[in-house]
Specification:
Elements lengths: L2 H7 L1 H9 L1 H22 L3 H16 L10 H13 L4 H12 L10 H13 L5 H8 L8 H20 L3
Length: 167
């Protein structure tokens, strides 16, 4: 059974589709890519494996807060485990280097907020962006059009990213 099949059959996942349909789509898209990445690794198609790994990371970045870079000891342990699992040495080194690399550009913040906003917009289409901002915005001030616009822009960026990934 693949990860995607397991997820689709899990009762908790079926329940979450009604409440957070977009989050469920993102999770399922990640699971399908993980299944495909495992298959590519088995066939030694490393180029496609790396592409899928990047897509998995992109989708995952919308689900929760970003984490700090792993420590040097975590990277070393991961490298040793990958080599012990039979990864080709070149791929293990590439993955190690990828773990050390900081993301380019502005740090990702509130991506999960954009996902929640789009979920709300999908389940309650009559809500305005201002109503969604009032419900979700984490700022301490009285919510104004700036809050609304920030959430709306992030949600539109998420929609564009998901369309580019075919989700």
């Amino acid at each position: 059974m693949t990860l995607a099949e397991y997820l689709e059959n899990a009762p908790e996942f079926k329940d979450s589709i009604a409440v957070q349909p977009l989050r469920a789509k993102v999770l399922l898209a990640m699971a399908r890519r993980m299944d495909a990445a495992q298959e590519r690794l088995t066939r030694a198609d490393f180029h496609d494996f790396v592409r899928l790994a990047k897509e998995i990371a992109e989708l995952g970045s919308w689900l929760g807060r970003t984490q700090d870079l792993p420590s040097q000891s975590q990277i070393e342990n991961s490298f040793k485990a990958n080599v012990a699992a039979g990864w080709p040495l070149g791929l293990a080194f590439d993955y190690r280097d990828l773990q050390r690399k900081k993301s380019r550009g502005r740090p990702m913040k509130n991506r999960n907020l954009a996902l929640q906003a789009l979920d709300l917009k999908e389940t309650r289409p009559r809500y305005s962006w201002m109503q969604i901002a009032i419900l979700l915005c984490p700022c301490e001030k009285k919510h104004d059009p700036t809050c609304k616009e920030r959430i709306r822009q992030q949600a539109l960026m998420l929609r564009k990213t998901l369309a580019a990934l075919g989700v």
